[in-house]
């Protein structure tokens, strides 16, 4: 594994932890899905992210948030945008899935 791959994996994990901490701190129920363990879940996530939110190249990376089947998205700088998160999640946000 290259240094860049290790850094990318570390960055994704940190962003996922930021999202999980935010949801837990706000007592928002959620299901965390590990897309590395399920091709079906990974394909569902890819398919349900709106076209205008897809990356220019490659597949979208975690973390991604859905409320039922509605995409809520997550900014790449989620941790620094706490105020806008409430509108992103269509507050009050009661339950969701974090990929």
TrEMBL record:
InterPro entries: Glut_rich_SH3-bd, SH3BGR, Thioredoxin-like_sf. GO terms for molecular function: SH3 domain binding. Gene3D superfamilies: Glutaredoxin. Signal peptide: none annotated. Keywords: Nucleus, SH3-binding. It comes from the Eukaryota. One of its GO terms (cellular component) is nucleus. It is found in: Nucleus. Belongs to the SH3BGR family. This is SH3 domain binding glutamate rich protein like 2.
